[in-house]
Amino acid sequence: xxxxxxARIAGRFSRVEPRATARxxxxxxxxxxxxxxxxxxxxxxxxxxxxxxxxxxRCARWDADAVRDDIRAYAVEHLGxxxxxxxxxxxxxxxKGRASAGVQRQYxxxxxxxxxxxxxxxxxxxxxxxxxxxxRRLYLPEQSWCSDPGRRQAAGIPETMQFxxxxxxxxxxxxxxxxxxxxxxxxxxxxxxxxxxxxxxALEARGTGYVMAVACSTRVRINSGRTTMxxxxxxxxxxxxxxxRHSAGNGAKGPRYYDWAWIHxxxxxxxHLLVRRNRTSGELAFYLCWSPAAxxxxxxxxxxxxxxxxxxxxxxxxxQVGLDHYQVRNWTSWHRHITLAMLALAFLTALAADxxxxxxxxxxxxxxxxxxxxxxxPEIRRLLVxxxxxxAVTAARLLHWSTWRRRHQAxxxxxxxxxxxxxxxxx
Length: 427
Hints:
IS701-like_DDE_dom
């Protein structure tokens, strides 16, 4: 299956050298390498220097967007099933300095606070067979980057790239997937995307249903009237009979049960406010929902629950295939590394889907205690390290790379000391 996955993208590389390097890069992402940047991946591949890996990301001739298209088709082929959901979300990449494309001090959920970081907006594809990332956009802040030509040029940002909001980037990825023939009746996302009326309107224009999280202060129109009411006020006035218990999907400890209520809003018969209530704390969450045809409450709950699977994608991508291990500053290099990491994740997810039993497991009647769970992405990668990427690093090779790294670090240290001395003399 690995060779089949490589064959899908082989035509995107016009020369054999970058094609072979891309294969080694992917194997490195799947390996047990401590850090999955060019230095460590080159060492894992048996190269004498990181040059080939760095050229693959920086200046080799290949189209990362075309490979992205291959990843999307590969994911649909292996994971496709009825009721597929597209999920939009963002994740942060904490960075030092100010030279990396798009970096600035901004809030990132990765750190849980404002940090110097890059933010990537991603699109995930989720079905009953699995979930994986199928598209990506690097968010380019308006003031600190879009209005600074010198900074843009230094980071290799194309002149055609202008400021776009995160919901707009999300819509571009959704529209690209729909135009490519991805059959999905639903899109979901958190408040950052659900609060954007233009994104919701664009989905409705395409006839694609959505279940989008919104703030408690969101105003909705009740009973086709002219007056609007805050979502949390609507929830407070619901009778006890309006709440129903449903599972939002299986978590690590079993089904995730909440109390749910839905209220018809607006003049459209297929438009609802969905409210989720935590059965222990009473905490409320709100969703605006629209569908081109009538649906059940259970279906809206299912889609709302699927949104959390994008967090599993981020966790697997960062923990298993080095999505955030890159050490690049250039715009093109960022997109290329992220794309190859997405391919590695899609490959592992496809393996897990093909290895899963044909009969779904009933969470209410689990297997015997002696039966193992189905193969997971982390477990498959552990097996691949032994079967596909056998250790072939000799003591001499380890010493070579140790010397190379320390020489490179000595050069960098001298450069930093020289610059600091110059700054102190001129300050």
